[in-house]
Design a protein that fits this description.
Layout: H1 6-18, E1 23-29, E2 35-41, H2 45-49, E3 53-55, E4 72-76, E5 82-83, E6 90-99, E7 102-103, H3 108-121, E8 124-130, E9 132-139, E10 145-146, H4 161-166, H5 168-180, E11 185-190, E12 196-201, E13 204-205, H6 206-226, E14 230-232, E15 248-254, H7 277-288, H8 290-297, E16 322-323, E17 325-326, E18 334-335, E19 343-345, H9 354-371, H10 388-393, E20 397-398, H11 403-412, H12 414-441, H13 445-451
Parallel strand pairs: 1-6, 17-18
Antiparallel strand pairs: 1-2, 3-4, 4-6, 5-6, 6-7, 8-13, 8-15, 9-10, 9-12, 9-14, 11-12, 15-19, 16-20, 18-19
Helix pairs in contact: 3-9, 5-6, 7-9, 8-11, 9-12, 11-12
Length: 455
């Protein structure tokens, strides 16, 4: 929590009022990454800054409270204020949960801040870029989802300019707002599925990027709803199309100099990928805990319908199914893009809680750096085509193939309690096991169609 003097708060209130802001929205996320909060009239900014807003934790998923517990509070982070582009009377800002005057340990943003402090103790900051993939869809009368533009029907629609322009109004609104917010959008395109798009904006420190991705989902949904459409980062809306990734592009930087701790000339890298030993050790830590990390990178039942080699699609899915790394090779779960200097975890999807996932992957990578974990040789070939014997000879494990399997790996890995604490770890397991059980006990349309006439 940043302490502000009364004079600073008065000046901030005046500056916000001059912009036409009348209300303050302090947003935090629950265990799923869903935003929660209260809205405060700007005249109460001073009270809000000192934690006036109280919440019954038992009413929220994953905050570990009983009905008898004292309330949690939220304290706004005034360093990350966004005036809502579509409703300029409201200022959005991330908030941190506290309990009886101390950071609340089960709050996801606080978890990430704790691991960032650990990195700082080692002399590192953590830069993160999240590739935001998203579907723009129409809801039909029967509740099903469909692609809203009639021309978007290609079997391979990736980079299709005609379908891009058919949706230009929404895309332009999104792109213009991202740039106006100062996020530095450098590319956006039609992605590999019909109705799917990707926005790529510049990396930032991990806390800022997690805040931005949280706001991005809110903004995309609002602009879609203005057009009578639905924007969703759901991992796998359609069985026969590729899903929504949220690839994490990561590097450590030296806090003293700002230098990228992963970057070197490929000629100076014996493996030729442009990565320092620190970078390889970071990857070694990710691979050591890769199966457990999957529970936070891909946190829903639906996530594991994306993490398949082919599934119901005509071609390969592009999604990772192996706990492996390599160069500019998208069949690995961890990829070193051309030129090096960073690594990309590809199993993160659009349902990710960015605070929890960033905390877990950073902690795993830091362990790799401390213990100098060697990730082995990079995999350069198409891992989708390996047989089991070839895969076993390289020591490559499958990533979990269901949410239940991911939660079991998460539970078995001691890193999870170290990062989240025993209480939040137990909450995550409880909620995600319940999600799996609810899904497993439901009867799907596929089952009815297949079995009702068979037996």
């Amino acid at each position: 929590m940043t302490a502000y003097s009364d004079a600073e708060l008065k000046d901030l209130q005046s500056a916000l009022e001059a912009k036409g802001i009348r209300y303050l929205m302090g947003a935090y996320v629950d265990i799923h990454g869903v935003q929660k909060g209260k809205v405060v009239p700007i005249g109460h900014l001073k009270h809000m800054a000192h934690g006036s807003e109280r919440y019954t934790g038992y009413a929220l998923d994953g905050l570990g409270q009983a009905p008898s517990d004292d309330e949690i509070t939220s304290v706004p982070d005034f360093g990350h204020i966004i005036q809502l582009p579509w409703e300029p009377k409201v200022a959005w800002m991330p908030a941190d949960n506290e309990f009886q005057g101390a950071p609340y340990p089960l709050a996801p943003r606080n978890v990430l801040k704790r691991v960032l402090e650990e990195a700082a103790g080692m002399g590192f900051g953590f830069n993160l870029g999240i590739e935001a993939e998203i579907f723009l869809l129409k809801k039909e009368a029967d509740g099903s989802l469909s692609v809203p533009t009639e021309n978007d029907t290609l079997t391979k629609p990736c980079y299709d300019l005609r379908s891009f322009m058919d949706n230009f109004g929404w895309l332009d609104q999104m792109a213009g707002t991202i740039d106006a917010l100062g996020w530095d959008l450098y590319s956006f395109d039609h992605e590999d599925a019909n109705g799917q798009f990707e926005f790529d904006f510049r990396f930032a420190d991990a806390l800022t990027m997690a805040d931005r991705f949280t706001f991005f989902r809110m903004m995309a949904k609002h602009y879609a709803e203005e057009r009578g459409l639905i924007a969703t980062t759901m991992p796998k809306p359609f069985a026969d199309k590729t899903g929504n990734g949220a690839h994490f592009n990561m590097s450590l930087f030296d806090l003293a100099t700002g230098a990228n701790a992963f970057e070197c000339d490929p000629a100076d890298d014996p493996r030729g990928l442009g990565l320092t030993e620190t970078g390889y050790h970071f990857i070694g830590g990710i691979l050591k805990h890769g199966r457990a990390l999957c529970a936070t990178f891909a946190p829903t039942v639906n996530s594991y319908k994306r993490l398949v080699r082919r599934g119901a699609m005509a071609g390969f899915s592009w999604a990772p199914v192996f706990n492996s790394y390599g160069s500019n090779n998208r069949t690995n779960s961890v990829r070193i893009p051309q030129g090096g200097g960073r690594c990309e975890s590809r199993n993160a999807d659009g349902a990710v809680n960015p605070y929890l996932a960033a905390a877990m992957v950073l902690a795993a990578g830091l362990e790799g750096v401390r213990e100098k974990i060697d990730p082995g040789s990079p995999n350069e070939d198409n891992l989708y085509e390996l047989n089991d014997a070839q895969r076993a000879a390289r020591g490559i494990e499958f990533l979990p193939q269901t949410l239940l399997e991911a939660v079991e790996a998460f539970d078995a890995d001691p890193l999870t309690a170290k990062v989240l604490g025993e209480e939040l770890k137990a909450e995550f397991i409880r909620y995600k096991t319940a999600e799996w059980n609810e899904y497993h006990l439901s009867v799907s349309a596929w089952e009815t169609a297949r079995y009702s006439h068979m037996f």
